[in-house]
Amino acid sequence: MPDSSPTTPSRTSFPVLSALSVCHLLNDMVQSLLPAIYPILKGALGLTFGHIGLITLVNQVTASLLQPVVGFHTDRRPKPQSLAIGMTFSLAGLLLLAWAGHFGVVLAAAALIGIGSSIFHPESSRIARLASGGQHGLAQSLFQVGGNAGTAIGPLLAALVVLPRGQHSLAWFAVAPITAIALLWRIGQWYAARIPGRSAATSAHEPHHTLSKPQVLRALAILLVLVFSKYVYMASLGTYYTFYLIDTFGVSVRSAQLHLFVFLGAVAAGTILGGPIGDRYGRKYVIWGSILGVLPFSLALPYANLALTGVLSAIIGLILASAFSAILVYAQELVPGKVGTISGLFFGLAFGIGGLGAAALGVLADATSITTVYRLCAWLPALGLVTAWLPEIEPRR
């Protein structure tokens, strides 16, 4: 970590971005351990797919509802040490989940982990932009690749540690949020030293456009449609992919979790692409390609054999993951000066839409089948067509 001089960095601060990315990895690893042990909880507690969807709903709604509030508040009054405090909630939720013997306790643990995430994302996204040196897309991609890497690692750790040793072994992973708390406290000190000079130092990097307020609101609505498309489809894979593989191909729980790791690993790899490509060629092009470009592969997925399913899921994760960095930075440029509010809104809606989608898809899976869920969700990337109505707010490249 660089020294805490009171000036905002004029060049990209890679040590800060790297530390944020590591913390994002640790935060989202804890988050992903929850869905990764769904098969264990389902068998041990006698849960239905509806129960599984409700756990996801509680976790992601607690994360989503608070994030815009946190972002709005910290836009007005930055809270440099709030990140460490938020991670403490995640630590408490993880320890509670390790010893949860009833469905209600699992819901409480899911809520605590969600609250920790709701505090972490808006303020850390603001710090990533502050450390970007004007390369906003690159900074968001570096920040988000840590989160997606953590999401990918969770199922692998569940397969290698939790599955053979049992639910209580989740407590071993408390070292992750404890490490993150120490790093985030240090990042908070770096951030606190730069708050006074932030506005003057970053004004040169804030974009300006000539859109009217109705045009801005319409563009934000289009972006929310795209977030809906991406995150409901991601919920179908992130929450139910292991069950789909077990039910359709008869694989073991361990094998299914390893397949999930491959998919989430591809998501992590794809995340790093969207920001730099958007910085260079334009974010609207990235949004076009990353959402609508998934459609041929998503339509083929429900009809593929096991080997091809693994390949298609990796391609889908790689392409689709590049969307969110571009969407988030595009939204921040639509509403300059409200980084925390916009970050909280879009991260929150991503979690909330994913949670609602997971709950609805769980009910549909109970009523029909997992295969029906995947055949229906395969059409969601077609909503990428609405990108055509996004206004041009960037200079020609």
Short synopsis of the structure:
The protein is mostly helical and 397 residues long. It has helices at 14-36, 38-45, 49-76, 82-98, 103-130, 136-165, 175-192, 198-202, 213-249, 253-281, 283-291, 295-300, 306-320, 323-334, 339-367, 370-377.
At the first level of CATH, what is the class? Mainly Alpha
Mean pLDDT: 85
Main β-sheet: number of strands, strand sense, barrel status?
A: none
Coarse structural class: mainly alpha
Structural domain tally: 1
Form type: globular
Order of helices and strands: HHHHHHHHHHHHHHHH
User: What CATH architecture would you give?
Assistant: Up-down Bundle
Strand content: under 5%
- Work out the radius of gyration: 20 Å
Give the uncertain stretches in residue-range form: 1-8, 197-205
Estimate percent helicity. Answer: over 70%
Number of strands: 0
CATH topology: Growth Hormone, Chain: A
Q: Helical element count?
A: 16
**Which homologous superfamily in CATH is the superfamily?**
MFS general substrate transporter like domains
End-to-end Cα distance = 34 Å
SSE layout and pairings?
Blueprint: H1 14-36, H2 38-45, H3 49-76, H4 82-98, H5 103-130, H6 136-165, H7 175-192, H8 198-202, H9 213-249, H10 253-281, H11 283-291, H12 295-300, H13 306-320, H14 323-334, H15 339-367, H16 370-377
Helix pairs in contact: 1-4, 1-5, 1-6, 1-7, 3-5, 3-15, 4-5, 4-7, 5-6, 5-15, 6-10, 6-14, 9-10, 9-14, 9-15, 9-16, 10-11, 10-13, 10-14, 11-14, 15-16
